[in-house]
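Task card 7
Instruction: Convert sequence to structure tokens.
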Amino acid sequence: MNGKEGLEAFLAKGFEMHFARPPGGVVRHALEIYEQEKEMIATDVHSRYPATAARSDFDEVVAEVIEIDARIQATLLYRLSRGIFLREPNHAHLPYLAYLMRAKTGAEIYYSADIGPRLNVEHGMGIVVGPRHRIGSDFTIYQGVTLGQRRVDSPHERMVIATTARSFPARNCSEQSPSAIMSAWVRMRCCSPMPRRTRPTPVCRR
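Output:
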């Protein structure tokens, strides 16, 4: 079984396990979107597994890591559903892919959320990224974090949102603070990068 067949088998098994009547053609459609979104998917995989960037058999890499890594499963299913959403926002396959992500990984990343390259999902369980958020590249989100209906509009890079954070300001933070870290005790606040074992200094407040 080659890499593309491995990905196809993973998707087919997932739909078979979690749906009594999966929609016809959903796996084929997902594979078509995979080809179109492969460059963006590669940024997520290579960010998690840097050594794979030197390999030429990317399909095989994907087939290997999705068997054992729920974090890559979550980012892959997000990229596939996002690709469909951008082409057909009301496509019937979208809720099935969204449910498959939740069932397999415990994460919910809405396909209307716009997230840049090198998305990094840590552990996955309990993560919620709600609809219409706009987030830049190198975004890391930890388990238990919820970004709900309060829209994140932060195209900056290298944003980290840590465990048990519950929301984020609706406006952008200062252009002088491109990185942001949120933790359990930082709520509704944008902060500059947090030194280890020290409390961050807020640079803007709601």
